[in-house]
Design a protein that fits this description.
Structural class: mainly alpha
Largest sheet: none
Helix content: over 70%
Radius of gyration: 16 Å
Number of strands: 0
Strand content: under 5%
Order of helices and strands: HHHHHHHH
Distance between the termini: 31 Å
């Protein structure tokens, strides 16, 4: 379903002729710029995640592992093909929904309001008690989208980050790390 959802959203995206306000507000970013921002963004997102974990520990006590991540790893262990859903299709769907649809449609109000709303919804959608972590990540993905005017930038970062996290968690589960 994740893969089907990502494909359907991509079809809708490519059928749309008019750019959203957030996309036309900046000069069209080149493919190299989108890729560079997206790849560098992976590491920035990991740093932001670490900062958010520290803040959660300070504010709420000992940090617990992400139930969402643990469930994903368990599903991948049981059905390895699920790795595509969690590392590629899921992030693509989330970027189309939370950044392009929610943030993109609310930019007429003001970018910052839209970024906060879409980031909060992104955090609540993950539903594992780590609201600060997912809010920080959602907000960063929103900034990437705004900086380039292209959803592909935040998609590259989101897919790359999820892939790294899943691969590290799988290595830990298998005793390789």
């Amino acid at each position: 379903m994740y893969i089907l959802g990502a494909v359907i959203l991509a079809i809708f995206y490519f059928k749309q002729r008019e750019p959203l306000v957030i996309e036309s507000a900046v000069k069209k970013a080149s493919v190299p710029k989108i890729v560079i921002y997206g790849l560098v963004g992976i590491f920035v997102a990991l740093i932001l995640q670490s900062i958010a974990v520290m803040l959660e520990s300070i504010l709420f006590g000992e940090a617990t592992p992400s139930e969402n991540t643990q469930n994903i790893i368990q599903m991948i262990m049981e059905a390895p093909a699920f790795i595509l859903a969690t590392t590629v299709a899921g992030p693509i769907m989330e970027e189309f929904v939370f950044r392009r649809s929610i943030l993109g449609s609310s930019v007429g109000i003001q970018f910052w309001v839209g970024a906060v709303v879409s980031s909060l919804l992104f955090a609540f959608a993950h539903n594992d008690g780590h609201l600060l972590i997912y809010f920080f990540l959602g907000f960063f993905f929103s900034l990437e989208y705004k900086a380039t005017g292209r959803i592909w930038t935040s998609m590259i970062t989101h897919v790359g980050m999820n892939t790294l996290v899943v691969l590290v968690q799988l290595a830990v589960q298998k005793g390789l790390v």
